[in-house]
Request: fold
Amino acid sequence: KETLEYHHDLHHKAYVENGNKLIAGTEWEGKSVEEIVKGTYQSGAVAQNGIFNNASQHWNHTQFWEMMGPGEGGMPGELEKALTEAFGSVDKFKEDFAAAGAGQFGSGWAWLVKDTDGSLKVTKTENGVNPLCFGQTALLGCDVWEHSYYIDFRNKRPAYLTNFLDKLVNWENVASRM
Reply:
């Protein structure tokens, strides 16, 4: 509970508030978060890094919250089939996803994405970079910044990722993004 309160009520809220301040009076005011993320990442303008960082972290966290919750129905058949086709098994997908997150040096995210060619892939990104930056569709994202797990898991990021995949993901929500 404490981790989620800090994470949502302080970290995510700060990204929204700071992002709104930074875009006020700029060309980005009034644009969607997706447009801001894509536009400021692609522009590579150093002056807009603050806008990108806050917008992308807001987008990332929104995805994160939407993918969690009770999933009493378990993993839908179409998702299980797609993961098995792409990775060999659901367990292999989970292993690859956890390895990507655990292997991310420093802060970042682990992702299950639908790539531009329609294939499913596990990837990781540093800091606030996300699949939008590469034209990919995020199906599942897990925050591997220390604030997302340190209170409960200390320095055991792999255990946090296993817990996330086994107990927190609503697989029906993930399947709905395919």
About this structure: The mean pLDDT is 93.
